[in-house]
Amino acid sequence: NSLLLFDPLDENTIKGIEKGELKEEKGRNEILYQKYHWDIFASKSLLCIGPEEKSPNVLLNDILEEEKREKINKMKEACCIGFKWAMSSGPLCEEEMRNCRVRIIDLEFERNVDEQQVIQALRRSIYAGIILSSPQLLEPIYSVEIITPENAIKGITKSISDRRGFIIQQQPLEGTPFQQIHGNIPLIEIFGFETDIRTFSRGQAFVQSWFDHWGIVPGDPLDKEIKPLNLQPNPQPYLSREFMMKTRRRKGLIDDVDTSKYFDEEMLSTMDQNNFIF
Asked: In whole angstroms, how far apart are CA 25 and each of 14, 31, 47, 67?
């Protein structure tokens, strides 16, 4: 039996992990407490980061009862393997997860439990918890910089908006007749963007782009009421569901997450009685 809590990892800790500031176990607790403002108990509870040393997901031993806490620490390696396995292949699309903080609040072991059983049990519990925690899909967001003549700005602005993007800044380029535009566009929408810009500006504009951050895809990927449209653009609330289904199909998976893999019959029955809808 296990009791886990899930919440998003804070932005500062995410950046610290991705910079590699927390990859060494030695001194990590102190860094979390002093630089990232974790409380003392949480900073001492970190078991591991994963699935890679710069992946922004963490597993914490938040059990208060000392005897149980020690049992988890003795099984640390198995717990971390189960956690990293789960983080490397999430339940929605079997892709690596991001920004997850998993806290072990309680965990009961059988007397003769082996490490393999701990790995499987924790992995399954994490998947079940993720599904119940309203998971969301993330997509790469690119920064774009455009140098363009002023007469092309209207078309460029519309193109950015049509691609689910937005303009962050627009300013004249001193000493020239050109304008400089900074904006953000989801990567999946950026293909063909440079061609559009050159068309609007008659070849006079210059475009460059680079990865900026991960953003949340609009919509709920687990909402079965949403039926994505075929052969036509979907409204934004449909996108998360559409992306999940298409990714799963590409991998040879069924369209929806198979909840029977993560929940036993008793738990599914209890959730059904409480009107919990997947």
From this structure: 16, 10, 9, 23
What are the tens digits of pLDDT across the range 171-208? 998 888 899 999 999 999 999 999 988 888 888 889 99
Q: Which two tokens stand for residue 148?
A: 């363009």
Q: How far apart are CA 155 and CA 149, in angstroms?
A: 11
Among the candidates 199, 216, 233, a domain finishes at 216
pLDDT in tens, 117-157: 888 888 888 988 888 888 999 999 999 999 999 888 889 99
User: What torsion do the CA atoms of 90, 94, 95, 101 make, to the nearest 10 degrees?
Assistant: 0
What is the domain-level CATH number for residue 210?
3.30.70.240
- Identify whether residues 6 and 124 lie together within a single domain: yes
